[in-house]
Amino acid sequence: MHPKLLLQACSDLVRLTLTFEHPADSVVSKFFRDNRKNYALGQRERALLAETVYNVLRYKLRYDHFAPSGSGPKERRLAILGFAQHLMDHSPTGAPLPGATPPPKRQEGASSRNRFVPKVHATSPIEFLKSALTEQEVVWVEACLKINVEDLLERHRHNLPEWMVDPLKAQVGEGFWPLVESLNKSAALDLRVNDWLAKREDVQGQLKELGIKSVLTPMSPWGLRISGKPPLADLAPFKAGLIEVQDEGSQMLALLLDAKRGEMVVDFCAGAGGKTLAVGASMRNTGRLYAFDTSAHRLDALKPRLAKSQLSNVHPAVIAHERDERVKRLSGKIDRVLVDSPCSGLGTIRRNPDLKWRQSPTSVAELGVKQRSILQSAAKLLKVGGRLIYATCSFLVEENEQVAQEFSLAHSGFRPLSVSELLTQLKVSHPETLCTADGMYLRLWPHLHQCDGFFAAAWVRES
What we know:
44% of the residues lie in helices and 14% in strands. With 463 residues, the chain is α/β, with parallel strands linked by helices. It has 2 domains: 3-160; 245-461, 3-Layer(aba) Sandwich (Rossmann fold). The longest helix has 19 residues, at 361-379.
């Protein structure tokens, strides 16, 4: 595709995404479907457009600060900056932009947040971008690249909404800037091996034969982490149900539930069923596992995955709400319940950078009401001796510790369990590094654990 046409497509996609009317991944997918005739987009072009938009979302405050000094439509200026970021992140040599004076050399051990973007390749990639720009735009983007981020306001360095900054600083302290840096990087691709069908090491060997290198995930006993984004759907292990895409942090929730053979188990907010499939496999395809969700559309996405997994113990069921009659009929009969609650999703910012702009203190407060209601209803399912896990993919205390502590105070029949002790029993290495200081809650952070941000609390029903 001609560079000018590709940049125009980037600008159009940026404009649509920044309305924040729909999730960014949905906007990107719809744009590709709707513009098959307008733009001849191959796999590389689609990847470049998607990454350009995600860069605009990641660095929105910084780009908004740079944009007024340029010319032309704002979405084009933002697209140019996001486009340049993509080229720089994928530079094979690290050479600076032609005509630009590189920033001062970074000292040993300094954080990469100290400059606007990494260095870029001096030949074809950046020349490709420059061929789409006017002379004035080339001068402008080169000037932007000379700026040392340390000279900017803090908000233009962290690129987070102000309401999130103080809560995160309070939680991670000196880890705030490493956290920021990790949030502005693309997430690695984690796979979960279906150990009901195959051993992790065997699947790793199969992937290696297909030219895909992987490493064992350090926390989850089922996980493999791979580089890049290979076409998994075309791979024999994927078609055979041996692997599923699932972040290691998400895998840890299924591990923490520790469902046993022959038990009655409920995944209360199953969604598309990633954790459901992990739990079903850990039950060795025995017992009965209910996958509840209020969205038939989400559960429909589980069906083909369930068929590939060869699990017959999973029973998807659409419920109207958390007090549905289907839920009430199982009251007091269930051994284990997993509540991966609807939440802000801010722990997945690496994958979904639009979430930090689409959420607000008001939306978080509204979610808190729903989270408390769902947890209370789900708890009624458990029999005496049963285990309850409450989890979110959020960093926020309001969605995590506050909800868990309020539940404990209001439900004396449920004894809180130390997650650190549970992980020790599950033979997870160094569990104290995965939990809050008191060991009571799971707390996973991208900059510390190289996975999405997750929280989990656990209880056993005693009366």
